[in-house]
Specification:
Oligomer: heterodimer
Low-confidence stretches of chain A: none
Strand order of the largest sheet of chain A: 1-4
Number of domains of chain A: 1
Number of helices of chain B: 14
CATH class of chain B: Mainly Alpha
Strand content of chain A: 5-15%
Structural class of chain A: mainly alpha
Order of helices and strands of chain B: EEEHHHHHEEHHHHHHEEEHHH
CATH class of chain A: Alpha Beta
CATH topology of chain B: Cytochrome-c3 Hydrogenase, chain B
CATH architecture of chain A: 2-Layer Sandwich
Shape of chain B: globular
CATH architecture of chain B: Orthogonal Bundle
Number of strands of chain B: 8
Number of helices of chain A: 4
Low-confidence stretches of chain B: none
Radius of gyration of chain B: 20 Å
């Protein structure tokens, strides 16, 4: 009976729910939101990429060796593991801003699925190119050293 | 003997909260036999944890096994990984883990209670319980930064610290929750309409609970005193923070409600004790070791004993991870609990079991 009267009383009470899209809901100060990136501080160690559980961070590399940071907010689980792994204070940080919804025009999933293997490949290409250049340089050095030695030998013989 | 009918319920049904299939054989509206099928949401998480993810990432993956007891899974995995790494975590991290587990228990039990009320046909009480539950979600969000996926326990410790103002808000919100909990206790205990659907319904005896190896509130409602918090002291010091065993004797839906409500009082006391006696210290023990050997861990999730087994082979990726969720242990008891009850009581009984199928099927 008591419950019945309480239920009747509830009819004249204000609603306990908030009118969400028109009013803000509860959000703590240190909400786990989007991951921010400060390029000037990054030391390009790629540790964040290695620890990220869903693989939401990937670095691509062009042929000059310059790396670019790519981040997908739709893949990110906002765990903050990358921020904990970052050795440089302030290069990666977690903001309190919730991720905006992805729009169809962004093509967020398909573009990411295409970008991810390409980024990995670009790094492999750069590494291969670097290796090739190093090998070339080593060969050139070796040839130069051999030529030098030969010329020294020749000069010794003429003397 | 009357005519027998077979009534399938699920895998999708209005009275079910999770994809679970029951086939009831009924005679004159009485359930005489039940078949259960629980594996509808298998996602292959165990295999993914042993192939795709590194062992430090797995604690975030197992958090996605279940939305309600996310912290129990991450903590159990973190503990098993710490056993493989042979490290001891800081005392403060242990206390913070217990804090989140208990806050999680508060919200999980209130959710279950509200669903029992809803499935018993008491929609107003469902809304009231859900309204009172909201504070626990907000507290969890304030501590962990997220409402559902806490990602709080990581291998070696915890990921975030408890801020003093958040600790104060937990204490004050729990204080305002106490009279609300008393009110809920009063309604669940004395409401006559609810008692018609709950008292003497879906009963399990202590003997049956023991034979069927039940765990969690389901077993404690039948009088079987099983609680991992009472048995293990090495990983999380439960007794230090004021854990106390709660048991009932009847084993029906009503006593399961009572168990959950009384456990809320225990949880509130534990949370208060933890915040008042939070030790100082680090949050995480750093190590560069790799998991090696085998280990098992048991942890009391809101639904009962959660069991983790892991095997490492000195590489980044685990060799084997096995998760046994509490609902899996209770399936045999669930089937038994329906026997001799009216078919109309089945929804309330299902809700009172508090089944978590995504844990079970993984």
């Amino acid at each position: 009976m008591k419950t019945f009267f309480k239920a009747l009383g509830n009819l004249v009470k204000k609603p306990v729910t908030t009118k969400y899209p028109f009013e803000p809901t509860f959000k703590p100060d240190d909400y786990r939101g989007l991951i921010g990136f400060e390029e000037s501080l990054c030391i390009w160690c790629r540790r964040c990429e290695a620890v990220c559980p869903p693989g939401a961070i990937v670095f691509s590399q062009d042929m000059e060796g310059k790396q670019t940071y790519h981040y997908n907010r739709a893949v990110c689980i906002y765990c903050g593991e990358c921020v904990r792994a970052c050795p440089k204070e302030g290069a990666l940080f977690q903001t309190a801003e919730p991720a905006p919804c992805a729009l169809k025009e962004e093509n967020i999933n398909n573009a990411w699925n295409k970008l991810y293997p390409e980024a990995i490949e670009s790094r492999e290409l750069y590494a291969a190119e670097k290796k090739r250049k190093a090998a070339e340089k080593a060969a050139a050095d070796k040839a130069a050293a051999a030529a030098k030695k030969e010329s020294e030998d020749n000069s010794g013989a003429t003397a | 003997m009357g005519k027998q009918y077979e009534i399938p319920v699920g895998a999708q049904h209005i009275a079910l909260l999770e994809p679970l299939h029951f086939k009831f054989t009924t005679e004159n509206e009485k359930i005489i036999n039940t078949d259960a099928n629980v594996y509808y949401v298998h996602r292959g998480i165990e295999l993914a944890c042993c192939s795709k993810f590194k062992f430090r990432q797995v604690s975030f993956v197992v958090g996605r096994v279940c939305g309600l007891c996310s912290i129990s899974h991450t903590t159990a995995y973190s503990q098993v990984a710490e056993k493989l790494l042979k490290i001891e975590i800081p005392r403060r991290a242990k206390y913070l883990r217990m804090l989140i587990i208990e806050l999680d228990r508060i919200h999980s039990h209130l959710l279950c209670l509200s669903h029992v009320a809803e499935n018993s046909g008491f929609e107003a009480l469902f809304m009231k319980t859900m309204q009172y539950r909201e504070f626990s979600m907000e507290l969890l969000e304030a501590v962990c930064g997220n409402r559902i996926q806490y990602d709080f326990s990581i291998v070696g410790g915890v990921s975030r610290d408890l801020k003093p103002q958040v600790a104060d808000s937990i204490i004050s919100r729990l204080k305002t929750f106490m009279p609300q909990l008393d009110e809920l206790m009063d309604i669940y205990k004395h409401n006559w309409t609810l008692s018609l659907k709950n008292k003497g319904v879906g009963a399990i005896t202590k003997q049956q609970a023991m034979e069927l190896n039940l765990v969690g509130p389901f077993a404690r409602a039948a009088g079987l005193a099983v609680d991992v918090r009472n048995e293990t002291e090495d990983l999380l010091p439960w007794k230090e923070v004021g854990f106390e065993m709660v048991t009932e004797t009847a084993g029906d839906v009503y006593s399961r409600n009572m168990i959950r409500l009384r456990e809320l009082y225990v949880s509130i006391r534990i949370v208060n004790n933890i915040i008042n006696g939070l030790p100082e210290g680090d949050l995480i023990t750093e190590t560069k070791a790799f998991p090696e050997g085998e280990a098992t861990v048991r942890l009391e999730a809101p639904r009962g004993e959660l069991f983790y087994y892991a095997k490492g082979n000195k590489t980044q990726v685990l060799e084997r991870l096995k998760i046994k969720a509490p609902t899996f242990s209770n399936v045999a008891g669930m089937v038994k609990g329906f026997e001799g009850n009216e078919y109309g009581s089945a929804p309330a009984i299902i809700a009172s079991y508090d089944p978590c199928l995504s844990c079970t099927a993984r």
